[in-house]
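Filed under: proteins

Residues; backbone shape codes:
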Amino acid sequence: MSDLLPLFPLPNVVLFPNVFLPLHIFEPRFRDMVSDALEGDRLIGMALLKPGWERDYEGRPPVYSIGCSGLITHVERLADGCFDIVLRGVERFRIVAEDHGRRYRRAVVESLAERGLTASDRDLLRNQRAKLETLLSPAIGARESDPRTTAAMSDEDLVNALAQYLALDPLEKQALLEQESLQSRAESLVELLEMKIMIARTPGVSNVAH
């Protein structure tokens, strides 16, 4: 990564490694950010805004310290000056300090390489993948006409794609991103989905939970 990573803080988007994210860029400060990124290494850091961001959205409201960088793989500059871009998640990072020299946010970050998987971890990950596929099989069967869509994905890509694309609360996605290994992320995702299914099937539990 470059010394200063442009930050794109949003209240409801969490990016995961090697997952694609389409974005429409319309605010002037973020249009500047994209223009500058395109002239450099094309990297942007996605960071989730903490609750209460509404009070200072135009300023620099607090963000969670762990985010994920994304490489701009596709860009379309629109007639009104806005951009449609696609990011591919690259790697997790931790914000060390912020720079205030431009109207969009930039940060000094440290790379957070995910803990390597041992042979035992790989076995556990395969088990977690099987559980995920079982939990989601009705939805996958209804939405995917080509079974190769998920079957051809690696364990890593499938877990990260599910973590990003499933209709989870942003804070739940943030907690998954902060997991130090893919195996622990998969385990947490299984537990989260099992809990949601249990709540959905138990009358009255959802009301108590909230």
User: Anything to note?
Assistant: DSSP finds seven helices and six strands in the chain.
